[in-house]
Amino acid sequence: MAKAAKKSKSGKSLKQLSEKLLFTKKSAWEDIKKKELQEIMNLSEGYKDFLDSSKTERESLQSISDLAATKGFVHISKAKKSDRKLLLTYDDVAGALVVVNNLRTLEKGFLMNGAHIDSPRLDLKQYPLFESEEMAYMKTHYYGGIKKYQWVTRPLALHGVVVLESGKKIPISIGEDPSDPVFTINDILPHLAQNQNKKTAPKVIEGEQLNILVGSIPYRFKSEKNAIKLNILNELNRKYGFAEQDFVSAELQLVPAGNSRDVGFDRSFVGAYGQDDRICAYLGMKALFDMDKEKAGKNMMMVYFDKEEIGSMGNSGAASNLIERIVNDVLQHLGKSDYNLLIRSMENSRFLSSDVNAGIDPEWKDVNEPMNAAKIGSGVCLTKFTGSRGKAGSNEAHAEFVAKIRAAFNKEGVLWQTTELGKVDQGGGGTIAYHLARYGMDVVDCGTALLSMHSPFEVASKADIYHTYKAYRAFYKHL
Ligand code: MN
Ligand code: MN
């Protein structure tokens, strides 16, 4: 075919027209420069350290507080009036990092990024300890959406806090140090599993079978009723100073034991428990820290919520008035507290609801519509709506706001993709987005795609981690 025949009426070749008009998803690894590759790998190292010290919401908030202190943030309860980098904490499970750069624009609101720091897990029951067949177990109740069968036959660590009647808090962390014991939920051997094998996945292991093995030695080596249980209680009492009733006022969580790992020969993935949503919690914080170099004259915050995995209820969840209390506390600190300013400031804020999304898994492709689903390694996810059955229960972001966000991302060379949680009528899910939108602020969902979400070992692409960080920076810089 002659060259001229390829041209359209406008004189452009098909290739030129494609480049001008078509959107094509790109791999973040394509044509990557050595320097950028190094940045990607370095970023994930800090992220993995954060994950390893942040296995519960309390530990996450502690890690955030520690890192913020090194960046000059001061807890609001101890801050001087002139302090502009503030740490706020609520019930040790939720909080915010706030940077005030401009006192005259408080009415125009804050650039808010919000993530949740709770993750699916197994909680110990109020009275957990029992004996059976000369062994001791503890009963659990799962927290958040899990596939129960994924949590058996693996080492579990116990994290949390026991609060005595006196109010004294006893922190617990057993199972992370290589010399620590771990706990585990047993499963039936395949040889005798013919009845189990007939069950559907949610019934293969039932809720009341999620019992962890905790011991078998009777007190003073005498096999009497409750002697094993008593031996364990005695050991706990000796070591930590609590008794059986103290379990009632405890928050003790079973999480996968061990550290985060690189995954793959090329180390292109991070594999770890709790990446939903500590991935966004960490990257949002890092983006905020690094805005120091940008000298942005804006008021910004990174907000941390609890209870997202069980519906955002409770006074530390996004369905509470936590955001209101945060903004009010900041305004009060600045000596600017009045109701009108509080309401206006929230209304004019812009909020990135930062949470993970479901990456396409080649083994389970049929749950996605590929054009609008998250492709692993193709950048940060921008999710205009969540919900299910006709976007029900979703905060759908306005087109105007999405346009601003996408312009900011493009300006900073962020690799981003538009995403949804499964194809239409496949299922769905929600985030904290609509709880914030209640105050009138613009909100859109934005975060990293995961494989094996809510499992004990979630997987994220290091390239996507990097572009999520870049996206959060672009948001603080340009919105
Ligand atoms: Mn999440
Ligand atoms: Mn989740």
Structure, described:
This protein has helices at residues 14-21, 34-52, 57-70, 201-204, 227-240, 275-290, 322-333, 339-347, 399-411, 433-437, 462-478; strands at 74-75, 85-90, 94-99, 111-116, 121-132, 135-143, 156-163, 169-174, 211-215, 250-256, 261-263, 269-272, 300-305, 350-353, 357-358, 380-383, 416-418, 442-447, 449-450, 458-461. With 479 residues, the protein is of the alpha/beta class. The chain folds into two domains: 34-119 and 273-478, Zn peptidases (Aminopeptidase, 3-Layer(aba) Sandwich); 121-256, Roll (Aminopeptidase i, Domain 2). The strands form four sheets. The chain has a nine-stranded mixed β-sheet, sandwiched between helices. A six-stranded antiparallel β-sheet has the order 8-7-10-5-6-9. A three-stranded antiparallel β-sheet has the order 11-12-20. Strand 11 (261-263) and strand 12 (269-272) form a beta hairpin. It is globular and about 90 Å long. Residues 276, 309, 454 line the site of one manganese (II) ion (MN).
